[in-house]
Amino acid sequence: MRFNEKELRYVSRKISADREGRLAHKPPRENGYKERWFKLMNNLLFYYRTDHGVMSETEACGILVLEKCRTQIEVDGNSLFVFSIVFEDDRDKKHMFSGQNENQIREWMDAINRASFDHLRSKIQVLRSQIAQRRGKGPALALSEQQVRPSMQETKEHHRIRQDKHFSLFFPSEIGRKDIGEALLVDL
């Protein structure tokens, strides 16, 4: 994948991170973990060299694009709290990460899983489905045009009530005040 390095540098410095912190990282085909500072921004996971637990450089030494990947808990004899990122197109290459406790690695895994475009797309589909269901169930939205449009007799009756100077709400006969109140509460 090709990147515009200048834009990536700008993004890594200027945009606030969705999550950031220190993790030990073992890239694919390497034996040991190296401590790195990670910044998750949208679907980009930047990592930096660290010095005494804080970011020591302003430029990232690496980046992972978090698309078509999954996270999973790993068992590694060298570290207690480990998870990995595995990409669909290259399952042999696992990026291993070690944290200080189980809660930390679970939070990172959740953040990484939510960062992908695929996750956002599925979330949008769920929301669209919920909206469609609510539209189908809302009483005001299920009314036909005849029910909403008053008849000539009802219109004359409405004007007569206004002429008598009685304050009253006008509703077509098929709809009650309760139905309209419920329709106003429908959350679209």
From TrEMBL:
GO terms for cellular component: cytosol; early endosome; recycling endosome; trans-Golgi network. Pfam families: PH. Residues 16-117 form the PH domain. GO terms for biological process: endosome organization; receptor recycling; retrograde transport, endosome to Golgi. InterPro entries: Boi1/Boi2-like, PH-like_dom_sf, PH_domain. CDD domains: PH_PLEKHJ1 (cd13258). This is Pleckstrin homology domain-containing family J member 1.
